Amino acid sequence: MNRRAYPYRRPHQDAVSTSGWTLREDDGAAIPLPSALIDWDYQTNLGLECSIDVDLDEVRETSGLPPEAELALTTVWSSSGSGLRMLAHRITLHGTGVRTVQPAFTVPGRDSGGVLTLETQLVLARRLNNPDPTGPRRAGSVLWRSRTHLRLQGDASQFPMAVVDFPDAGYPADAPWHLEIGRNLEAATMGSLLLLVNSRTPLVLEALRKANKASPAERMIHSALRQDVTRLMIEHALDHEELDDDSAFEPDTLGHTLLGVVRTHFPETDLASLRSVRRGDPALLSTRIQDAVGLFAKES
User: Fold this and answer.
1) What is the enclosing helix (H) or strand (E) of 123?
2) CA angle 109, 111, 112 (to 5 degrees)
3) What is the rounded distance in angstroms from the CA atom of residue 299 to the CA atom of residue 36?
């Protein structure tokens, strides 16, 4: 396993501790943050909070910092679906003893999707002339880091949607949905994706309207839709031969979104390998996508 080597001393692992993140429910109750939210949709905001204890004396002593060193605790959230990265909380820590910090904030549903990452860091807030040559001295030097991931399983439902009569629109009469995807990778995501839902499929329409209040059978429909949309987006990404793992796009563009979907579901597989699987055995790629998305895994 690869481990990052820092060019300066860092605090003892017991110098900072956290209770873990919790999620505030509609009734105000807080529950431990799960690894995934199956029925999440873009209208659902996420209220997040945790408690962190920082032993300032232990931090300074074990990392070689003088008493006047100014520390800061920050929390940043990022979304693979939207491509956004935001500073959610920052507090400067002075003095001695154990300091308890309780970050609390809300991540808007419209800015989320894919995998939500919460990264909390204890850093050196200001540059200092550290008399200890092994201690940190540059502003921003990371002393402690904690990272938590939350998969928002319902990210297919955040696309722009339109309900249409499929025969009138030129699509098969009994198909439940169709995803339109643009070809311009530099174009805005929200203008490049449109999920068409067939007005002749009342069961699908009702399932989408209910969102997180869906019945078990309706959650099966959510899962099938999520898997199909993910498969189409991954295949669309693979169709663009110029798209590779080093490609970079502005946030909120189609290229950025497609790469985010691929990396979310296949974090350890490069695009060239996925294209090779698709050429050799397209059915296997489809099966791997079912597995990565967790088709029906949480609904059964």
Assistant:
1) strand 114-124
2) 65
3) 13
48 is in which domain, residue-wise?
Answer: 13-153
Within 10 A of 114 (CB to CB), how many other CB atoms are there?
23
User: Does the CA dihedral 41-43-46-47 come out positive or negative?
Assistant: negative
| 243 plus 168 within the same structural domain | yes
Its pTM stands at 0.56
Task: Looking at the structure, tell me whether residues 148 and 241 fall in a common domain.
Answer: no
| Number of independent structural domains in the chain | 2
Residue position matching structure tokens 């995934």: 36
Query: Quick one: which of 154, 193, 189 has its CA closest to 41?
Result: 154
Q: In the block, which residue shows the tokens 């500073």?
A: 87
Element (H, E) at 292: helix 282-293
Task: Give percent of the chain above pLDDT 90.
Answer: 57
DSSP 8-state secondary structure symbol assigned to residue 134: T
Q: Tell me the residue type at 93.
A: L
- Distance CA(98)–CA(55), nearest Å, equals 4
Where helices occur in 164-253 by DSSP H, the ranges are 166-169, 189-192, 202-210, 216-239
Measured at the CA of 92, the angle between CA 87 and CA 20, to 5 degrees, comes to 60
Instruction: Point out the least confidently predicted range of 2-6, 51-55, 76-80, 207-211.
Output: 2-6
Residue 156 has a pLDDT of 47
Instruction: Provide the sign of the torsion angle of the four alpha carbons 69, 75, 80, 82, taken in this order.
Output: negative
Token pair, residue 242, equals: 């110029």
CA terminus-to-terminus distance, the chain: 35
81/251 Cα distance (integer angstroms)? 10
CA distance 240 to 16: 46
Q: What is the CATH number of the domain that holds 124?
A: 2.60.40.3880
| pLDDT for the residue numbered 115 | 82
In a shared domain, residues 214 and 289: yes
The phi-psi region of residue 236 (left if phi > 0; otherwise alpha if psi is between -120 and 50; otherwise beta) is alpha
